[in-house]
Amino acid sequence: MNDIYMLGIITNRGMRDKFIQFFKMHNIHVTLTALGEGTANSAILDYLGMEATEKAIYFAFVTMDTWKYLKKELYSKVRIDIPGRGIAFLIPLSSIGGKKVLQYLTVGQDVLLKEESTLQNTEYELLVTIANAGYIETIMDAARSAKAPGGTVIHAKGTGAEHAKRFLGISLAEEKEMIFIVVRTTQKNDIMRAIMQQAGTGSPAGGIIFSLPVTSTAGLRLLEEESK
Question: In 3-state terms, what secondary structure has residue 213?
């Protein structure tokens, strides 16, 4: 199944009402919302026109046809290309647990099921690090040492700690930090290696990291201008 994607939008919390209305207007009925905080320094915040580092993160499940329409609307209605409005990215899902769940997540959208496939040669990737609480700066310092841009943090509670000793040889705390960083694919290996070396499972941070391909973006003006 390669036509269902997870849409992620990261924006300042002050944009919450605008995005909630945006989803309703475009028949996106199932969304997930979390609160986070940015790690970008003041110079980057000034460049992006952002007044604070407090963030809201929205996740929705869309087809490619839905995304193509939403992307145009993000530019024309939300004006996501204006610094400070936020960024949007698309992540392919390889599987969803059951037909009823799939129907629930994509209600109102035409869904085409195909054989699962592996996506390659994407320009951007989303790095996700899950670590013990209290080690955000350790992880971001490691990422920045490999020239990573700022990240977004979600505070969470983890499960599976009872298996960590058996599989990873470490004890994991229940309180977690999830750090999301959108990077160019050419940077991915260096950044992941730096995090694993400085904040991986052998460190007090106990960091676990993985990457997801980002097939399309909107609002990444800073990274796009740097690449040019």
Answer: strand
- C-alpha 61/C-alpha 97 separation (Å) is 14
CB 74 within 8 A of CB 195: no
Q: What is the pLDDT of residues 192-227, one digit of tens each?
A: 899 989 998 888 888 878 888 887 778 776 666 665
Q: Which of 108, 97, 158 is nearest to 130 (CA)?
A: 158
Interatomic CA distance for residues 13 and 36, integer angstroms = 9
Nearest CA-CA partner of 91 in 9, 11, 189:
9
- 200 and 222 in a single domain? The answer is no
Domain check: are 11 and 90 in the same one?
A: yes
Cβ atoms of 179 and 203 closer than 8 Å: no
Q: What's the CA gap between 210 and 8, in Å, rounded?
A: 16
Q: Which of 76, 75, 72, 64 is nearest to 4 (CA)?
A: 64
Instruction: State the CATH number of the domain containing residue 14.
Output: 3.30.70.120
- pLDDT digit string, tens, across residues 108-152: 788 765 544 455 567 888 888 888 889 999 999 999 999 998 888
Task: Write down the pTM of the prediction.
Answer: 0.58
- Closest to 211 measured CA to CA, from 119, 95, 126, 124: 126
